[in-house]
C-alpha cells in the first residue's frame, strides 16, 4: 500500500516521503481515509503504531482544503495530549508532515514560562497542540478561544484518566463547538473513556491495531536475581563489561533514579535522570545528551514520568 492510495494530497505525500516513510502502518491505512472524509475516528492504538500521522495527516489535509485561512489566523484544530514530551513530539510531526502547507501550528504545555507560548498564539496559529492544564490556564487568561475549532483530537485518552486530567478534559470538551470532526485515540477503554466516546463521537469509524510488542525477537533478555544492596554494583559491572552504546534504566521511584545516577557518576559512568520533579529544561537537556550520546545511561523513573 502506498500513501497516495489513501487519498493523501501531493504536498503531504512529498513530506512523508522526506520522512522516509515508505508505506503506511496498519493504523494509518485504516484511519487516514476515514479522517480525510471528515468522519469521526475512534482509534484503539498505543504509541509506536504510527498513530500521530494517523490523525495529523487528515487534520492537515482537511484544514488545508477547507475554508481559506482566516486573517488573523484562528485556532481551527486542537490536539489534546497528556504529557509535555508527547505534545512536543506531536508538534514536530505536524511541522514535518505539513512543511509544504501554509498552516501554522504551535505547542503549549506547563512547567515552563508562558510568555513565548503567548507570543506564538498572538502571532496566530491554525493548529494548537496542548496539555490540559496549560490550555485551561491560557483560556482563562483570554489568550485562547476554542470557538472556531473544526477538528478536535484527544490523544492517549486513557492516560489522561490515569494522570488525573479527565476532569479538565471534560471541561475543555464543553468549550468546543458542537459541530466538529473528532478523533479519539486510546490504548485501552476504561468506562470513563467509553462515556466520553459516547458523548463526543458521532458515528465513528473504529480502527484498532494490536499493541506493539514490547520486545522484538532480536532483543536478548536476561534476568539477574540480586539482593537490593548489590543492585548498583551489578549494574555498574554490567555497564563496564558490556559494550552497550546507550542504556536506559527504569526505576520505581524518582528518588531511586537520582540515587542510581549518583552511584554511577561516582563510578565514572555518565548518567542522567529524567522524572517528574525535574524541570522541563533539565528533562529536555538530559534527552538531548542521551540522543547525542554525551550521556550513556538515562535513568527513567516510571511513576509520574
Ligand atoms: P507514533 O506511534 O505516532 O508515536 O509513531 C511511532 C514512530 O513511527 C515515530 O518515530 C514515527 O516517526 C514513525 N512512523 C510513523 N509512521 C511511519 C511510517 N508509515 N513508516 C515509518 N515510520 C513511521
Question: What's the structural blueprint in terms of helices and strands?
Answer:
Layout: H1 10-18, H2 26-36, E1 41-44, H3 51-65, E2 77-80, H4 84-97, E3 105-108, H5 115-123, E4 127-130, H6 132-140, E5 151-154, H7 157-162, H8 166-174, E6 181-186, H9 191-200, E7 205-208, H10 231-241, E8 247-251, H11 254-266, E9 271-274, H12 280-291, E10 297-301
Helix pairs in contact: 2-3, 3-4
Bound molecules: adenosine monophosphate.
Strand content: 5-15%
Tell me the CATH architecture of the largest domain.
Answer: 3-Layer(aba) Sandwich
CATH class of the largest domain: Alpha Beta
Overall number of domains: 2
Low-confidence stretches: none
CATH T-level topology of the largest domain = Rossmann fold
Q: What's the rounded overall pLDDT mean?
A: 89
Q: How large, in whole angstroms, is the Cα Rg?
A: 21 Å
Shape: globular
Largest beta-sheet details? 7 strands, parallel
Percent helix:
40-55%
Q: What are the distinct ligands in this entry?
A: adenosine monophosphate
Q: What is the count of DSSP helices, taking H or I runs of 4+ residues?
A: 12
**What is the chain-wise order of helices and strands?**
HHEHEHEHEHEHHEHEHEHEHE
